[in-house]
What does this fold into?
Amino acid sequence: MTTREIGRDRLFAVFDSHYGEIKARPEAMRQRLTADRRAMEKEGHVFLKASKGNAFLNDLVSQCLTKVGPRPNLPFQVNMVASWDKEGKPAKAILANRSGLILISVATLQSVKHVDEIAFLLAHEYGHVAMQHPRSPQEYEKMLDDDASDGAKLSAQAIAALAGEGIGKNMLLRRHEDHADFYGFDAMRACSYNHTAANQVLQSIGDWDLEKGIFERQKELEGEMSSKENVEKGGLGSIFTGLGKAFALGAEAITHGETKDTRPSADRRQLLNFYDQEYYGGAVKFDFPAFRSRNAKWTAYKETSEWRSLVSKYGGSSGR
It folds into this structure.
């Protein structure tokens, strides 16, 4: 695996150089919400009337995670859903739309060990919202303002052409996932949450199939990356200039398994470990009393009749 994406600084610190040309307008986001919900229903996600659970998840995000990044307090709505895989079994699903609509399935919530694992997943998804990651590469050109730079417009056209299908599209989606991981990790650190939950939840849930919004276990890569020297820092620049360089490395990427649209769980964890060591020194420091309070609320919710009913109808047989 080649990794070029940890960047020259924390994502929060270099956010504008990556996404400054892509605007997130709250009013436009609110107008998209209903259409995004209908689209998610057409894809098979069933929105659940889980008033206590949905309130808990939205509070978890709004308490801090949406306040600390470069685009704070964007509109968002977290909804618990029921999702199924191709075999009709409950699926681990979590995904975000540019409107701020974030879905998380009952099966996913069953898989977590404590509340800050949920916090990282939701911070990751809010990162997609803040960065306005489109589900289709062709949307980038439509997202730019008239006053965007000529370079950004030309790059957006190139992305639409090169990332339409196949390896180009997969490389774009992998880059989106990397940045969402970094955004979520920065948010966890900034909020004094248990940042080690990021590594834990990626290990417990497994690999993420971004195209379907469903976590599906795949065979872990054999071994770990050989050394930190595999990470070349600072070479990508913005989402536009960076993808230009990434596409130029397409032949090399094929030989390193980048024909998939997301990294295996082992690689995502390793990349976050490098990111943590480089920019935070790997120090374990979080507000334990606040964590204990959050986790107590989550534990209490799992004892409610609402949660037990959801698990019995929509949960996986192996969930906790």
Observations:
- Residues 174 and 263 are 7 Å apart (CA to CA).
- The beta strands are 46-47, 77-82, 92-96, 101-105, 208-209, 214-215.
- The first strand starts at residue 46 and ends at 47.
- The first helix runs from residue 15 to 19.
